[in-house]
Every structure is written in structure tokens, then in C-alpha cells.
Hints:
The complex is a heterodimer.
Chain A: H1 6-16, H2 26-82, H3 88-92, H4 96-102, H5 105-112, H6 118-124, E1 127-131, H7 135-156, H8 163-166, E2 168-177, H9 182-191, E3 200-208, H10 215-234, H11 240-243, H12 247-258
Antiparallel strand pairs in A: 1-3, 2-3
Chain B: H1 2-7, H2 11-19, H3 23-44, H4 48-65, H5 75-94, H6 112-118, H7 121-129, H8 133-144, H9 149-156, H10 160-196
Helix pairs in contact in B: 2-3, 3-4, 3-5, 4-5, 8-10, 9-10
Amino acid sequence: MKNKFEQPDHLFKSKLDELEVEVPLTAWDRIQNESAKTKGMRYSLKHFGWAAAIAILLLTVGIWTSRQLSLSKKNQEELSLTNPTPTIENLAEPKAELEVTSTTEDLAEPVTLGRQPAELAIRHTSKAAFTEEEPENLKSSLSAAIDHRKETKEANDPTPMDGDQGGVSRVLVVYITPPVLEEKLEENDELGVENETGGEVLVAAENTSVGEEPEGTKRKGLQKLFKQLKNAKTGEKIDWEELGVSSYRGIANVNYQRD
Amino acid sequence: MGKILQLFSHEGQLLESLRAKDSRAQRWLFDKYSGRMMAVCIRYVDDRTVAEDILVQGFLKIFDSVGRFRQEGSFEGWMRRIMVNEALAYLRKQRRGFEKVSLEEAHGVVDYTFVEQNIDAEVILQMIENLPIGYRTVFNLFAIEGYSHQEIAEMLGITESTSKSQLHRARAHLQDLLQQWESLEKKKTDFNRKNLL
């Protein structure tokens, strides 16, 4: 016998358990439509998901590669900054080590003696002074200057230098004292005086890459050099300071070296 | 239809077909159980349109998650639980609380033998539909689905004592309704007898 609380429960359960209510006809159509929608969404998620994953992967690889490239570029720039290519500006503001060999004794000697072994002079300095008397000596000096520049360039730059493509070698010849005129030579012969053999020259050689320095600075440097060359030809005083050669600094460096 | 019924005469075959997303099996299942499931939905939600929405969502869930049915209980019971959960989810969305409604409690005694023999299921369903939402939900879960108060409390996010009190009030109200119906029915039969005589 069920108690008074269980009786209604049993009645309702027994009556409602098997109860069926009429379902609207639209219900099945709605189920089909909804399932078609979800199927479509699943299909698109499956396929577009793969496409999205591939796109993200490619994007990541692209970003990583571009970063690597920019890093390597930066490294190359840093390397080039630590090992700069010599230019006219570099020559105009010579460093202490260069100045030791390029002033006082080296420059004084050709004036008095008129001789200086070309190759030796070029090894120590980018500016070499020698007489124009021996053309072979001059030639060897020029070639030695170019070779020396090439060597230093190759040593500084890790990339191999291609003669024609990598850069341009320039040799600047400046007459410190003009060559002896033919009339004077004849005069000396008549007088029986020993001839002075010729003018003294300053040779500067450098390698420059194409487009390495701006046109303006090149022109300025050349203008300075040609101005001094003109001064030398007309017998006027050469402004060594303008060419970046200071006798005072040279002496100071020589003294320093001796100490 | 007869051929389809033969095709899915065994539950195992039906489940295999449903897992393979066979549309014929899905249709067969819908045709066989939609009426019963609709009755379940209406017990929880008094609005028939909302009940239809719950039915549609419930069947979609059944078709989608039939692979998770482990055949530990009856398949119909599993479907019924899905429908009940869908209905409860709807009620949670509506945020309809368990309001306390003062109802007149039955003072007389119901003749359950008479009621059980004469009352239609539709009338019983209407009685449940007329209950306040809190009473109705707890009564459905406890008396018809067979959940314990602890389970109901967890499902609805209420305390066990609330569940018990809601059930008590629901029962009392239903008894009152049943008593009213019984007295009306008895009056009708008496009137008919007198007319016949």
C-alpha cells in the first residue's frame, strides 16, 4: 500500500510515461535544416582550418626569414663600419700610425735626396714621394701602391674583391717640386753644373667601390688635390694641411714612436 | 514505413546506422519517439512553441552524440535525459526562479482508484502545466524521472531542502486539483445516472 505522498506520484508517472503528444510537421524539416547547417560549418571548419594553418605557417616562416636577412644585413653593416674602406676623407684625416710614416723624414728625404724606394714607401704609407727621374721606379711605385691597396682591401673586407666589378683603383700623382725644365738642363750643361734630376712627386693610391661614397665628397677631395697640384706647378706653396698632411702631427708621432 | 521498421528492428542495428549518420535511421527514430519526447518537453515548458524548439535541439543533440551512448541503460531513457537537460537549460536561460506561490492545500482525501480509472493523460498533463515553474520542475524530476533530491539540487542549483519543500507544495497542489476533478467527475456521473434513470 502506497502512502498518501507516493500515490499522486505513481498516478502521474503511470499516466505520463507512455503519453505521446502530436508533433508539428515542421519539426523534422527544422531538424534537417539545422543538421545541414552544422554539416556545412564542420566542412568549412575542416577545410578552411587546414588552409588557415598552412597560411599561418607560411607567414611565420616568412617573418623568420626576413628577420634573419635583416640581422645578416646589420652584421654586414657593422663589419663594414669596423673595417671601413679607405677614401679620400680617410686620407684627408690620417690616423696616428699613418702619419708617422708619411711626414717629416719621409717627405723631407725626397726633397733633399730625391730618392725613396717606391715599394718600401708605399708599404708604410698611402702617400709616397719619389722622383720622376726613373720612370720604371715610378711605374713600380704605382703598381706597388695599387697592390698594397688591394691587399689591405682584401684583408679588411671578407668578400673577395673583383678587380673591375668590386672597385676602382685611383692613383693621384702630385708634383711637390716641378720637373727641371729643358732650358735649365742645357744651361747647366754649359756651366758644367751637375743637373738636378727632376721634380718630386707625391703618389696616393686608393681603391673605391662604385657608388661607395657620395659624388660631392669625391669632387671636394679631388678639387683640393688638383688645387695643390696647380700650386705645385706654378711654384706656389703647397698647403699640406689641406691635403691632410701635418708636419707638426708627424713630428709628434715620431717623437712618440721613439719613446 | 513498414520496411524501415523491419530494417531497424534491433536496437544495435539502429545505433550503428545512427552512428553512421544514416538519415533513414534518424527519420525512423524521430517518427517513433518524437511524440513521447514532445510530452516530456511540454511537462517542463508550458509553451508548445518553446517545447518544439527544445524537441528540435534535443534530437539534433541525440544525432550528434549517439556515438557516446554506451548501451548501459535503455536508449529511450538516454534520449529522455537529453530532452530533460535541454529543457532545464532553457529554463536556466530564462532565469525563472523558484518563486513561492501560496496555494490552497487539499483538505480532503483523493480516491486514487477512481481517478486512475477515469482520468485521461491529457488532463494530468494540463494539471502539471498549471503548476508554478519551480513546483513543476521538481515534481517532474522527482516523481516522473526518478531523480533524488540531491541530484535535483545539483541540477537546479538549489538546496535539498528547497527541492523537498517544492515537491511537497507541488504534491499538495496536485492533490487539490485531483480532488476538484474527482468531485466534478463524480457529479457528472451522478447527473448522467439520474438522467438515465
